[in-house]
Write a structure and sequence with these properties.
This protein is mostly beta strands. It has one domain: TolB, C-terminal domain (Neuraminidase), CATH 2.120.10.30. 4% of the residues lie in helices and 44% in strands. The N terminus is likely disordered.
Length: 382
């Protein structure tokens, strides 16, 4: 749900049209018709129902931690810098990312009940939900190499350092198992979790492979997808928790996630940018690689969010399905002179004949009335 502390896996963006965005869409649930730009920037306008820093009783997400949101509305937690124009990345130094929660309507990209959850001098990002919807975990970047795992209790607003020298948290769908990366050993560690998601038991290594990052569970909890760093390059892998077998996804693939309704995997593509897909077979093999979402030129994406107009290139990263396999949230980055200057979330709606791009980051910033550009990694409560 989605950089090792160095690369962005974003490549120089080649000239691509909206037609090329849908090349290789890989399953029956996504139609292949990509005849032009669908949607309109105005489609994603928010209802502006929330105000900055509203308390729980004034409409924050934690006022209703048990759900009852209505059909097609999902809780999200995301990292953002709504105070300045910082990059809101994971480098730690100079970045000021805080965590926010909101409720997202999938059909039109509108948001409500935006609430700031952290406000610190460190940078918090890469959030993950506990399935109970009451606890969020996140990585704390004190500096580029010093990382801890924090917990946020949405019922009380309390934050705490759950683990030191740890990052990349995720929880099994049944809420019983906590999975994270040990910064010192680069191993994925697993530990039983109790106490409403706030108490960890003793941890043990999941597998014996080093440099495992950014894990994600399949919806049934049996499979894990993560990437291994080999010579500064990411190689995605799927691990079967029953057979203990690991299957390699292939070079140039990182920050992967499972679909919700299938075993399709989506990964960042470090060689040519964008998001690639492969279907994992329960026999322990993968289908062919295809382009799921290709990077765009700035003049194309700026039609949806004008902040991207000056960018030399635009890349998509950290794919996260939300609600179903027809709504994908991605971090969309502005690249200038080889550096990411800011990022904003986009909701890509595949429920129609052509994908609709909804500028979720723009909507969130305007609804929150924040001046900062950046919104970053997101987690959607399933």
């Amino acid at each position: 749900m989605r950089i090792v502390t160095s690369p962005m896996w974003a490549a120089t963006v080649e000239a691509m049209s909206l037609r090329s965005v849908c090349l290789g869409l890989f399953t029956a649930w996504v139609t292949a018709a990509c005849t032009g730009a669908s949607g309109n920037p105005s489609d994603a306008s928010s209802d502006a129902s929330s105000q900055p820093d509203v308390g729980a009783t004034d409409g924050g997400v934690d006022a209703n931690p048990d759900g009852n949101l209505g059909a097609g509305v999902k809780k999200i937690v995301f990292a953002s810098d709504f105070d300045t124009n910082g990059g809101c990345r994971d480098h730690g130094t100079g970045d000021q990312c805080d965590l926010y929660t909101a409720e997202l309507t999938l059909s039109d990209g509108s948001v409500r009940r935006i609430k700031r959850e952290t406000n610190t001098t460190t940078s918090e990002s890469y959030p993950a939900w506990n399935p109970n919807g009451k606890v969020v975990y996140y990585t704390i970047y004190k500096d580029p190499k010093a990382k801890d795992l924090g917990s946020l209790d949405l019922t009380t607003g309390a934050t705490a350092t759950l683990l030191t020298n740890a990052s990349w948290a995720t929880v099994s769908p049944d809420g019983s198992t906590f999975l994270y990366n040990d910064v010192k050993t680069s191993l994925l560690m697993t530990a039983p979790i109790t106490g409403g998601g706030l108490t960890l038991s003793a941890a043990s290594p999941l597998t014996g492979v080093a440099s495992q990052d950014d894990p994600d569970y399949s919806s049934d909890g049996r499979y894990l997808v993560f990437h291994q760093v080999i010579s500064d390059a990411a190689v995605a892998q799927v691990f079967d928790t029953q057979t203990k077998k690991t299957t390699s996804w292939g070079q140039g693939s990182g920050h992967c996630g499972f679909a919700i309704d299938s075993l399709n995997t989506l990964c960042d593509n470090s060689s040519s940018g964008g998001i690639l897909s492969r279907l994992y077979d329960t026999n322990g093999s993968f289908g062919p690689v295809s382009i799921f979402l290709a990077d765009m030129k700035a003049n194309v994406i700026s039609a949806y969010d004008g902040e991207f107009a000056p960018c030399q290139g635009v890349s998509f990263n950290y794919p996260t399905f939300c609600g179903d396999d027809k709504h994908l949230i991605v971090s969309t980055s502005c690249n200038q002179n080889g550096e990411v200057t800011f990022s904003r979330l986009f909701l890509v709606d595949y429920s129609g004949a052509s994908p609709i791009y909804r500028p979720l980051g723009k909507t969130l910033a305007e609804s929150y009335k924040g001046k900062g550009k950046s919104s970053w990694t997101v987690s959607c409560l399933r």
